[in-house]
Hints:
By secondary structure, the protein is α+β, with helices and mostly antiparallel strands. Helices cover 13% and strands 32% of the residues.
Amino acid sequence: MLLSVACARIEPPPGGPPDTAPPQLIATRPDSLARLPGFKGDVEFQFDEVISEGTSASQGAGTGDLERLVIFSPAVRLPKVSWGRTRIAVHPDEGWKDHRVYRVELLPGAVDLRRNRSTRGTVLTFTTGGPQPATTLSGTVVDWSTGRPVPNALVEAILMPDSLPYRTLTDSSGRITFGPLPAGSYVVRGVIDENRNRRPDGREAYDSVLLAPGRTAAGELWAFVHDTTPIRIRTIAVADSTSATIELSQQLDPRQRLAPGQATVRLLPDSSAIPVTSLLPKPLDDSLHRPAARSPAAGDTAGADTTRAGRARADTTQAGRARADTARADTARAKRPGLVEVQEPSPDVAGVARPELKPLTSRPPLTDRLVLRVARPWTPGAKYEIEVKTLRNVTGIGGDANGALSVPKAAALDSTRLRPDTLGRRLPKKKP
Length: 432
């Protein structure tokens, strides 16, 4: 007689409701804002159920699933992060130092065995000696290339003169409220952390500001790539009968005022000069030469405004109810023991949809394109040599840039249906 042998599996009772509740943080060790001279243990985050170690185990390289949830400050090296069923334990790789304020941030994203993901995080701050921290920094990180605030941007507050780096991430609106930290002077740096390694890298956009002792508002940090080489011309393409678009290798310094005399255009092969009438960044050129849009009829405008106003009122009502529901939920969570300095959900970590943030207008936009306009139409099939002098990038590095423009033949120009220039001049038709 054949007997079948099967391994025992622990499963929930049949017919029971599925578990959709995310893991909840119920305790932390040590207590937040504690003063612990000679502390030698681990920082621990205790959950109400078993959490997943993740598909990528912690190896001290910052690539493990649990390692990505922890931001440890101050530290030069990555901390050791370990899993203990219902606990996450954190220990500095270089060991604990006396008379130092430590800040351990647990981001949203802890997952239980049924793949339910937590949407709340917490911060644990304590000192191994010295005065209690009481400084809170604030600011906003902005991507200067788009003008929009950056959610989940890396923020470093470097305490001077010891260069101790405290780190955190911006919230879903690109802002930080960062503290409590030790009193002193700080260099605050906002970094667009493209590879998510929680460290600033050479080609990542950033901006920084020095805060003197007692100053806590960093303001807007407009992050951009800090290039130390001059700008080069990548491509030049015909835009219409008397203009061309110049694509640059870097973004221009928006404070630079360009003049037509900075550009030289020569028709090859005889190198005869072509007068330049305008040299402007593309956004400014578009605003000056873009045709005005047709205004809608008065009756249509009134109807549209009324409809939009009604939708806005409905949206406001729904938003108010949503805010009230969120406030009640936050109040209930705040009553739970062990949850201190609760952070809002992180869109990238917790899977929450990222809101569309409006561009800020306190600084001019960046661009890597110029529009060059000449006094007479381009010659079909001709080649031009173009030089632009003293172009500055955003870092302030200046230099001359050279490029070539190849104008399509008349048949190719007709096939592209290029628009005439703003003065109404068109390319001369080829005689039959």
